[in-house]
Amino acid sequence: QVHLVESGGGLVQAGGSLRLSCVSSRSITVYTMGWYRQAPGKQRELVATIRSAGTNYADSVKGRFTISRDNGKNTVYLQMNSLNPEDTAVYYCNLDQGILGNFWGKGTLVTVSS
Fold first, then answer.
1. Measured between alpha carbons, how far is 18 from 103 in angstroms, rounded to an integer?
2. Can you count the helices (H) and strands (E) in the chain?
3. For 19-31, what is each residue's pLDDT tens digit?
4. Alpha-carbon span 110 to 91, nearest angstrom
5. Are strands 102-104 and 32-38 parallel, antiparallel or unpaired?
6. Distances (CA, A) of 103 to 26, 64, 65
7. Alpha-carbon dihedral 63, 66, 67, 70, rounded to 10 degrees
């Protein structure tokens, strides 16, 4: 089993920044990696994904968030700038194995105050 561990969440004021990290227990080189988030009472939604072909972002975070990866460290990052209260959620790291399924981290809480 692969284990994904997120870190970097916390409390930040509107307009501030946070950088989330996700460390995998296995190599991530060949996999699409992503960040998802879920707010109370809402469905889990895609935030961003990254693979060799490029990146993909939800419209709500384009221009504010940047996903990146360091395959040598088995780590994916999410730089979050210009945060607003609507970004408050638990953020989950994802490793996509295609037909073999997905692995998820336990999540890290991001709270943005107004």
1. 23
2. 0, 11
3. 999 999 999 999 9
4. 7
5. unpaired
6. 11, 26, 22
7. 150
